[in-house]
Design goal:
The chain is mainly α. It has helices at residues 2-25, 29-54, 58-84, 89-109, 134-168, 173-198, 201-223. Residues 228-235 have low confidence and may be disordered.
Length: 238
Amino acid sequence: MVFYALAATLISAVFAATLWMQYRARPRPYLLAWAVALGTYAIAALTEVIGAAGGWTPLLFRTYYFFGAIVLVGVLALGTILLLAPRFSGIALWVLIVLAAIGLAGVLGAQLQAVKLETHQVPNTDTIQVQGGLFSVLAILMAIVINIVGSVILIGGAGWSAYGAWRRGGASSRVLANVLIAAGAFIVAGASSLTRVFHVYEVFYVGQAIGVLVMFGGFLAAQRAPRRAPSLKPAPSP
């Protein structure tokens, strides 16, 4: 278990550093957002390494939940907005900051079921007590809201890129970039869901590593995309 979690941690950390260096060389805001996203993912994966090796503590779980369940998908979605619709990035950033701050307050104040932490596996999602008061509700609610909205943005970004490429009559690296980023995020989410149902934790860790690799492929594809998408104009009449 520790090996797979450590592999996911190292892969995401290396890729985050790579994107950061690319951002320093070519300052494009979406590169910074994706570097932060992979750095966030590395932190969440590192908590899994520590939990698998020495067991889970309340602080470790709160760290894992905040970075992995609340922040990650939101930052990935912000990168998509910065790539495809940068004029909306300012309000998107502030919305994400506010929701993440509310989520952080919820995570810090949430009541946890101690018995759920007595494991070396990733704790169940019901470790936070739903009836544990306002903070518990806020933590769960912010995770749901950010993940749903972020997923819609990731899927919508891939669809919009595909539509734009179709209108222009050819393939686009933007399509590949956004499809891979969305696919990578959903591979991670799918691995997590399968783990909850079948309790095969190797699937969870391997899925994480594969998901990060797919997302990084999308980040690299975005480097080949033009900085601004051509305006969509109707085809001239014959």
